[in-house]
Amino acid sequence: MTQTRAATPRLVLVAVLAALLSLVLPPGRASAASVQEVTGFGSNPGALKMYRYVPDGLPAGRPVVVALHGCTQNAAGYGTGSGWTQLADRWGFSVVLPQQATSNNASSCFDWFQSGDIERGQGEAASTAQMVDRQLADVSGDASRVYVTGLSAGGGMAAVMMAAYPEKFAAGGVVAGLPYGCAQAAGSPYVCMYVGATQTAKQWGDRVRAARPGYTGPWPTLTVFQGTADYTVKPVNMTDLMKQWTDVHGADRTADVSDTVGGYPHQVFRDGGGNAVVETYSITGMGHGQPVDPGSGSEQCGSAGAYILDVNLCAAYRMGHAWGLG
Fold first, then answer.
1. DSSP helix, strand, coil percent of the chain (3-state; round to 5)
2. What is the reported pTM?
3. Which amino acids are annotated catalytic?
4. What would the pLDDT profile of 10-65 be if each residue is shown by its tens digit?
C-alpha cells in the first residue's frame, strides 16, 4: 500500500508535466538531439566525413541544410556555434555537417580552390552531394527544400555546390566566402582572397554555367554575409558573388532594396519577375567570421567562438528566415 500511494502522486506529476510540455512545444515540433557521424554514404571521392544533426521526433518531409565549416573548425563545433543546430530544433529541419580531413588539407579547409574538388562528379564536391542524397533517403527529407551554406573555405565550397549541383539546392548562403572559380580566375587562391579576380559579371556567370553544362534551371538563390574589416577574405568577394549570381539569374546589378537590418547595410537584387535572387549583408566593422547573436530571443542564435563573432545579428537566422524555414 505504501508503494501504491507513493506512485500515484508521481504518475499525476508525470501527466501534468507532459501536459505542460505539450503547451510549450507545438505539435510536430522536434526536440534536441546530438551530432552523429554517418558512414558508408557513397564512394566519397573527396575523402570527407559526414556528420548530421537530426532533431528527435523530426517528421518526414522536412527541409535539409548543409553547413560547411571554416578552416581550423570541425563539423560539430560549427553546427552548434553558427546556430544551425539550434534553429533545427526551433524550426524542425535536419542539418548535414561535412567535415574536412587534415590528410586533405592541413588546416582543415575545404579545397574550394582545387579543380579536382570543385567539379561535378569529382572530389569533395561529389562527396558532399552524396551526403545530401543519403540524408534525404534516411530522413525522408523534402528534396525541393535543400540548402547549402558555409563559412570562409566552407563558404567557397557552398558556392561550388550551388554551381556544380544546382538541381540539388533551392538556395545557398556564403559567409566570408568566395565566388565559384575565383582561384582559377585570379590565378591563385591567395590573390582571390586578398585582392579579388578581375572578371565581368558575364565572365563570372559563365564560370557557373560551365560547371553544369546544359542546365536550364532553376538556379539556387544566394545570400551573402561579409565583414567590412575582413582582411582574410576581402569584401570585394561579396561584390563578385553578387555579380556572378545576378548574372546567372539574368538580373542587373542595381539593388532593388537598400536598407539596414540590425543596423547593417543590406541589399536585395531581384530578377525580371520580381523574385529576390541575391541578398547581401555588409557587417560594418566585423573581421573574418560567422555573424551570430547569442541568446534565446526569436531572432537570436549561435554562440561566439573562434571565427564565430557576436555582432548582434545571427546569419543563420537571416538565411533560414529568407528560405522559409521558420
1. 35, 20, 45
2. 0.89
3. 152
4. 333 333 333 333 333 333 344 568 999 999 999 999 999 999 999 999 999 999 99
